[in-house]
Design brief:
The chain is mainly α and 101 residues long. The protein is built from four helices and no strands. The radius of gyration is 15 Å and the shape is globular. The termini are far apart.
Amino acid sequence: MKENLCKGCKIGYQTGEREISKAKCKMKVCCIQKKLVSCADCSEFGTCDILQNFYSKNGYKYKKYKESLDYIRSSGYEKFLETANNWTKQYGKIKSERTET
């Protein structure tokens, strides 16, 4: 994996280096409180108000963020990380696992 990629937005909270009470991202706070790797692991994924409000924002990137979580849910973190390793920003092209016949 490239060394300059994001190491995650949750680093430091479990060790006490950062205070969760100061975090502004509702998704981050929720995942940390529920001890989830990401929203993709949540049983409330399809009905979560926090996610639905986030995805309802205008902008191409929000569609791509949802696509990424959907991919993680269907294919797992390992395949997602293989795909995301080549991205140059927070989102990129998701490899399709469909095979043409």
